[in-house]
Amino acid sequence: MASWIPNVIHMQSEFIQATWETVYMTLVSAVIAGVLGLATGILLITSQPGGILEDSFLYGLLDKIVNLLRSIPFIILLAVIAPFTRYLVGTTIGTTAALVPLIIGIFPFYARQIQNALTEIDPGVIEAAQASGSSPLEIIFHVYLREGLPDIIRASILTIISLIGLTTMAGAIGSGGLGDIAISIGYARFENDVTIVAMIIILVMVFIVQFAGDWLAKRLEH
Amino acid sequence: MTENIIDLKQITVDFKDGENRVKAVNDVDLQVEKGDIYGIVGYSGAGKSTLVRVVNLLQKPTAGKVIVNNQELLKLNPVDLRKARTKIGMIFQHFNLMKSRTILGNVEYPLLKTKLTKKQREEKATELLKLVGLASRKDDYPRQLSGGQKQRVAIARALANNPDILISDEATSALDPKTTLSILNLLKRLNRELGLTIVLITHEMQAVKEICNHVAVMQKGKIVERGNIEAIFSTPQKPLTQEFINVATNVGPAVEKVVKNPSFKALTQNQQLVQLNFIGKSTEEPIISTLAKQFGVDGNILFANVEQLHDETLGFMILVLTGQEERIKQAITFLQENQVRVKLLNQAVESEANG
């Protein structure tokens, strides 16, 4: 065992710490970016031409913001928004500081996924709800979010998996987590076993998310 | 005079089509009496779907007044408009059921915003499903049902808030003839039992013939002809109306076949090919035998069809009259005097032969 993972064997507590940091960054940014992205996605679908709250100005604005933010490579986004991160959190180092770029990096992606998922809903069903006297809020909660749930869950899985990837990139600027260990210890000190174990832990996390999400989406589909 | 439950005044609906503005509905008036079943017929693109969506303001008109149940809908605020909409049920060509909800859940949906408790909602929805004959399927999901069953569920859903009006937007167009008939019979029953006013739009005159009391024919955003069903069927004024009726009564295809048949190309001077339309009382008289007895004109029947519309009987017949030319003319005058509409078809045969 020691010959296979000569360095990792002495770093158990660091690995536990790093795994926890990755889980923390993923979960917190998933929740916050999830709310932001869901709201943005719903606003996109309802304000688009022909939507239930048609508003060409709002739609144009959101559409451009989402496109713009999605165009910035994440590694550059990390650097560019560092002053903003310092202003919000007081530092640019550590897991909490990493939340800011993670959220800004992932929510436009999620918003677009939500928009796509909700576009799949038959407009006739929306029309039927309108004809029965439903308000826009009722249509959002009782029709869009309910009819679109399986697709929303699929979009969420995709987003969380992307997010896990982004947390490792944040390691490059000292966020902590498995990415940080893999780069600053495994890669920088030529301790390959550290890099490989970090990767395996990340793969396990991805599989768990994928499996749980697929199971849930399938269960909700009729 | 009965009260008009729907009163559309000078409705115009414009659509932007690139640079152009297209008038989907052009200055149309429409009145529907309470308790009536009113059909709106037209080919696709005639504007009938747009017009009917104005009734619950799913489509806002560019100009005009919409009065439903004595309320001017365009003057209502959003909350009151939604309340008014609960009294206007609507069913669609593609049913538009929610696939994430059970049959019961779909029928319950319009009740979610009411003050009813969950138990009361379920009771009401179950009762409605009984009305449309699907109570046993209440825990199934829409994809487990056939088209006709889905439309029954959609009807139950449309009735959830006890509406006064039901709008049927091509509701039978995706169904086979037998299922269509059963849905139309259900609508007729609901009209009778609940006093429901029904506005039915369709491109099939057959559907109209089955249940409507009044009918309007639309073309290019205008109502070109309207009236009670007997009048429209017996004496259609416009070519388009005639076309729809010919299809519904099978007279159109029959005339076409006869006209194209080579054996009628050689009609002599003593023969006349005619189409007769009988209305009401004239169907009960032995007209053909009278022609033979009184004028010495023999009638050879090539096609005949009798339609029953409410209390009125309409007859359609294609005949070859054989006799002296003068006598045939007298016979035709006699027919016309007896409220039989006569259309001479010799010319049609000739033009077919020459063309």
TrEMBL record, chain A:
Which Gene Ontology cellular-component terms appear in the entry?
plasma membrane
Domain ABC transmembrane type-1 span(s) in chain numbering:
19-213
Q: Which UniProt keywords apply?
A: Cell membrane, Membrane, Transmembrane, Transmembrane helix, Transport
Question: What is the scientific name of the source organism?
Answer: Pediococcus cellicola
Please identify the protein, giving its name as recorded.
ABC transmembrane type-1 domain-containing protein
Pfam families the record matches: BPD_transp_1 (PF00528)
Its membrane topology is listed as: Multi-pass membrane protein
SUPFAM superfamilies in the cross-refs: MetI-like
Specify the domain of life of the species encoding this protein: Bacteria
What is the annotated localization of this protein? Cell membrane
Its main localization is: membrane
**Gene Ontology biological process terms in this record:** D-methionine transmembrane transport
Annotated transmembrane regions = 23-45, 57-81, 87-111, 152-174, 194-217
Classification via PANTHER family: ABC TRANSPORTER PERMEASE, D-METHIONINE TRANSPORT SYSTEM PERMEASE PROTEIN METI-RELATED
Q: Which family does it belong to?
A: Belongs to the binding-protein-dependent transport system permease family. CysTW subfamily.
Automatic annotation (TrEMBL), chain B:
The protein's matches in CDD domains, at most eight in alphabetical order, are given as: ABC_MetN_methionine_transporter
Which GO molecular function annotations are given, in alphabetical order?
A: ATP binding; ATP hydrolysis activity
Keywords, A to Z, come to:
Amino-acid transport, ATP-binding, Cell membrane, Membrane, Nucleotide-binding, Translocase, Transport
Give the UniProt record's GO annotations in the biological process aspect: amino acid transport
Which residue intervals define the domain ABC transporter in the entry?
Answer: 8-245
Protein name per the record: Abc superfamily atp binding cassette transporter, binding protein
